[in-house]
Amino acid sequence: MTDDLTTLVTGLARRAKDASRVLANATTAQKNAVLRRAAEALRGEPGDRVIEANERDMAAAQQMGLSKAMLDRLDLDRKRLESVADGLDQVAGLPDPVGAVVEERVLDNGLRVGKMRAPLGLVGIIYESRPNVTADAASLCLKSGNAVLLRGGKEAFHSNTAIAEVFTQALAAEGLPPEAVTLLPTTDRQATLVMIGLDGILDMVIPRGGEGLIRFVAEHARVPVIQHYKGVCHVFVDGSADPEMALEIALNAKVQRPGVCNAMETLLVDAALAPTFLPKLGAAMDAKGVEIHADDRAAAHLNGVKSASEADWDTEYLDLILNVGVVDGIDAAIAHVAKHGSNHTEAIVTKDAAHADRWLREVDASLVLVNASTRFNDGFALGLGAEIGISTTKLHAYGPMGLAELCTLKWVGQGEGQVRQ
Amino acid sequence: MTDDLTTLVTGLARRAKDASRVLANATTAQKNAVLRRAAEALRGEPGDRVIEANERDMAAAQQMGLSKAMLDRLDLDRKRLESVADGLDQVAGLPDPVGAVVEERVLDNGLRVGKMRAPLGLVGIIYESRPNVTADAASLCLKSGNAVLLRGGKEAFHSNTAIAEVFTQALAAEGLPPEAVTLLPTTDRQATLVMIGLDGILDMVIPRGGEGLIRFVAEHARVPVIQHYKGVCHVFVDGSADPEMALEIALNAKVQRPGVCNAMETLLVDAALAPTFLPKLGAAMDAKGVEIHADDRAAAHLNGVKSASEADWDTEYLDLILNVGVVDGIDAAIAHVAKHGSNHTEAIVTKDAAHADRWLREVDASLVLVNASTRFNDGFALGLGAEIGISTTKLHAYGPMGLAELCTLKWVGQGEGQVRQ
Q1: pTM for the full predicted model
Q2: Which one, of A366, A311, A396, A70, lies nearest residue A210 by Cα?
Q3: Residue B1 pLDDT > 80, yes or no?
Q4: Which of A142, A408, B292, B302 is packed most tightly, with the most Cβ within 10 A?
Q5: Which CATH superfamily is domain A2-228+400-412 in?
C-alpha cells in the first residue's frame, strides 16, 4: 500500500515537474489565456460541476459533524465561485514576473550583469478545508511559470477535484501540459509524507493551515518549506503615543477582521499612559464585544476583565479576545514581543522618532509598523496584487508572497568576450 | 555519549543564538572594530599561535598520509595568514547591509512601505579542510549582524580553534558577546547531526565542501540548507559565434583556474562550426596540457582524444580535463545543459541576439552568460565585495552570496494612523 502510494505520488510529481519546464517558457499571453479560460469555465457549466461536487463535500461534512466555522470555510456557492473567477482574471491582469531583470549594472570590465526572475519549478501546496485555495494557488503558480502539486483537505476533496479539472482543461486547450496543475488524488497522510520527501523534484512546499499541519510538514519535509505560520501580533502603545490614534489603530487591528492572522492578539501599553489610556480602551473594546485578558497592572485600570494566563500571551485567538499588558517603556515592549511574538506583524504607536526607528530595526517580524494597523500585512494591502500567503520564514521570502516571491533571481551577464584576469 | 553531545551542541548553539540578538543591534562601528582587531591579532602574537596550531595539524595530517592537495589546503603560513587578515580588513570596509531599506514606496493611503535588511540570526557553516574558512565565514556573518556556529574539518581542528579564539577575544574586547563566533569543540559526525537538527535555533546552514558532505547535510538537516554544490559548467559555441572569441573564452574558462567550481567542464559546439572550430580548440587545449574527452562527432575533428563516457558528462573534474561534444543547434545545447548541468554557471558564445536571449531565459543556472567566461561567477567578480560561497539552491539566494544574502528582508511600514478599511 505504502509502496503503491510512493509510486503514485512520485510519478505524478515527476510529470508535474516535466510540465514545469514547459510552463517556465510559456508566454505571458499563453498563461493569461489559461487563467481567463479557467475563469470563464467557473462562471459556466464546469462551475456547475464544482458546485455539485461541493454539495457532496458539504453533505458529507455535515454528517461528520464539522463545526459551523469549518462548514463555512468549505462552502462554495455561485457568489463565492464568481469571486474565485474574478480572482483568476485579476491574476491574469498582473504583470508577468518571469524574465524581469532587476539590479542591472555594468561592471568595470564592461560586463553587463543583473538578476532575472525565473520560476522555481514545481511548487507544492498543502492546505486544509478551503477549496478556493485550489484556484488561488494554481493561478499564482501558473502566472509565475511554475507547475503546482496540490494536496487539499479531505473534506474538500470533490470540490478540489472539480476545480483542478477546470485548470487542466484550460491548460490543454491552450496547448500547455495539463500536468502543470496536479491535485493529488488522495488525502492520505502517507501520500503527503511522500510528497514532502521529493527532494530534487519538488522545489518548495508551502503548508497553509493550522499549527498542527505546519509543524507536521516542517518536521518531515526533505524539500524547502516556507512556513505560513500563526500571527500572534502586538500593538505597543508607546508613552509618547497620540491616544486617539492608538485607540483607532487598536480597534481596527482587533475587530475589523478578527479571524485572520494579521489581527492583533495582544496590546501592550507603556506604564506612563496606562492610567489614562486603558479605561478608554476597555470601554471601546467592550462596546465591540471584545473580551479582555489583562495582566495585574492593566487590570487595575480596566473593568470586568479576566486575568491573563501565561499561555494567553502565546495564543493566536483569531477571535474577539485581546490580551492587554502594561510594560515599562520600549525596552520591555521589545523584549515581550521577542518572547511571545510569532515573527508576523508588530506595530508601535508613537510620536517619538527614535522609538519608531528602534522598533523598525529591533523587532523581528515579517512586517514592522509605525502608527498603522497590523491588518496591513497582506499582499493586497501592500500592493503585491495577490498573495499565496504570508511567510514567517526568514529565508527566501519574509512576509506576503506574491508572484515575485514564487520566483528565484538568477544572475545574468552579457559581455563581448570578457575573460577573467 | 550521544546524549552528552546533544546537550553540548544544543547548549553552545543556544548561547550563540542569544549572542545573535545582541549582534543584530550592534553598530557598524562596533562590528568593524571587531574585524579590524581580529586582523591585527592575526598579524601579531595570536597569529603565531595560529601558525603553531597549524603546524600541529599539518604534522598529524602528514602522518595520516593526506594527499598533497589536501595538505596544501590545510597549510597556513605567514603569507596566507596575512591574506586572511587583509580579507577581514576588506570586509570591515564594505557597507553594512543591516538596516538598509530597499523597494521603498508610498501606498495610496499614504503608508510608506519598504523592505529593510535584517540579520538572519544564527548561521551554521559546515566545512572541510581549509582553516581560512573559519575567518572568512566569521567575518561575513559578523558584518551582516549574524552569529555563526562553525563546524570545521577534523584535520584543521587546532588551526580553527586558534582562529576562532582570535574572534572571541576581539568580540569581548569590543563589548560584544564572544559566543557570536562559536566553533564546535568536536568534529564528531554525531555532533554535526545534532547541529543540523536545531530547528528554531539555527536559522540557516551552509555546507561547504565535497559532494558527500553536502548530500549528508541536505539529507539530515531539519533547518534550511543553502547548498553550495558542484559546478558542471558548460560553454556552448553557437553556430553564429565568433570563433576567436569562443576560443579565448573556452581557454579562460578551462585553464585560468581549473580547480574551482566555476571552471568549464564541458564544451558544446554547434555542428555547423565543429569542422573549423574544433581543430583549433584541440590544438590550443593541447598546448595548455588539457586532456579532452570527446563524443564521436567531436572526435572526428580532434587528434589524440579519449572517448567520453556517459558519466563524464556529469563529472566536475576540477582539473585539466574537458569534455567536448557536438550538438545540433541551440535546442540540443539547452537540452544537454538541462540534463547534465548543475545549476551553476552556463555560457553561450553567439552573435545571434535571439539565441542569446533564449539562453538567458531558458537555461536554469545561478549565472547564465552571453559571450563571457564562466569564471566570472563569484562574489568578487560580480561586485559583491566578498562571498560566503556560491549557492546552487534556488530559494533565498541563487549564485554568489555576499553580505546582503546573509540577511533577510523584512517589510517596514510608517504611517500616520492608517487603519484597514
Answers
A1: 0.93
A2: A70
A3: no
A4: A142
A5: Aldehyde Dehydrogenase; Chain A, domain 1 (3.40.605.10)
